[in-house]
Amino acid sequence: MPDSSKPVPHVCLFILKFGDGGVERMMVNIARGLALIGVKVDFIIKNSNAPYLHLLPENVRVIKFPVAKQSDSLPRLLDYLQQNDPDILLTAKTRDDEIAMQARQHHSGKTRFYLRPGTALISRMKARGMGWLRRWLKTRNLVKLFNQTDGVVAVSQGVADEVMALSGIPRERINVIKNPTITPELYQQSLAELPDPWLAEGQPPVILGIGGLRRQKDFPTLLRAFAQVRQQQPCRLMILGQGNKEAQLKQLAGELAIEDDFRLAGFVDNPYVYLKHAGLFVLSSLWEGSPNVLTEALALGTPSVSTDCPSGPFEITRAGEVAPLVEVGDVDGLAKAMLQTLNQPPDPEKLKAAVSEYTLERSARSYLAAFGLTAPVAVDG
């Protein structure tokens, strides 16, 4: 039972604009993990008709700010802080960070404000080819935010290094905490009925890519590497996701003459059953923060290959020990690693062990420690 002599920690997660991305899913998982270890959790959103929210347990209080614009939420947030004064307010997107920092200037309670950057910020700006003026303005804004906050939670050491390089804030104000990626439903959903005949036993191995069809994921490099692998052994390539590069990828598949063994499967509700039965998972990204899908693939024991992009894969794969790392954009290197891993798959148990720390509870306890709070603990008698 909880130790009633200690106050129960109170954490608020503030994420207004809610889509189907990894940031949203991880914020939900952070809330789940904190609630699991007895923390009082509030979850502030714009509206409740959003993905992943059904995963929140009943003891997480969901609060709606049904505002027309995100900036209109500041008075509501100030009212919430005045009435509730949680120990911590955690944000994970730049616009929410800005609103939170504005609220911080006006709130006189005990609440401390933490930012959670989820991607390699400098690398993202470089890879997107951002013009110097826009990059300068964005950098100036980020520097201001990081220097106003009480603390930063980075999802990988690479992200932490870029935050330090960008903002100049001291290392002791940055905590690196692994994402709460591994959940009970990951394993449950991986056992679902096979959704595609390509995944059946006796079929050529399926090489799987997962993510939005956008520049960051660099799927053209994956298609070109697959074309090389396919020349040497039978295999198929399937990509789960949707985005603005769909037509480009279909055209490239035609140019490479791989259409018969290539499929864009679109967005799927349960990617884990695909991951479980894939012969190989490949992450071909230009940049990341801590790629959850790579963690999930390893947790399911699926052989994997990744680019050594900033940041996350180096840490998740333990410096390439459990999954080969190749240079970003290196078609030949990626093809070689894919072929080698297909022909000599690693021990699944070794892959699972490598990511054993990426669980709801471990992550939640790390967050609470970073916040300087103590989880309610069971006591004898």
Number of domains: 2
* Helix content bin: 40-55%
Q: Please give the count of helices.
A: 15
Strand content is: 5-15%
**Which structural class do the helices and strands define?**
alpha/beta
Question: How would the global form be characterised?
Answer: globular
CATH top level of the largest domain is Alpha Beta
Element-by-element helix/strand order: EHEEHEHEHHEHEHEHEHEHEHEHEHHH
Number of strands: 13
Mean pLDDT: 91
Q: Which strand order does the major sheet show?
A: 3-2-1-4-5-6-7
Q: So, CATH architecture of the largest domain?
A: 3-Layer(aba) Sandwich
Q: How large, in whole angstroms, is the Cα Rg?
A: 22 Å
Main β-sheet description: 7 strands, parallel
Low-confidence stretches: none
CATH topology of the largest domain: Rossmann fold
User: What is the name of the CATH superfamily of the largest domain?
Assistant: Glycogen Phosphorylase B
Amino-to-carboxy terminus distance:
9 Å
Features:
381 residues, alpha/beta, Rossmann fold, 2 domains, six-stranded parallel β-sheet, globular
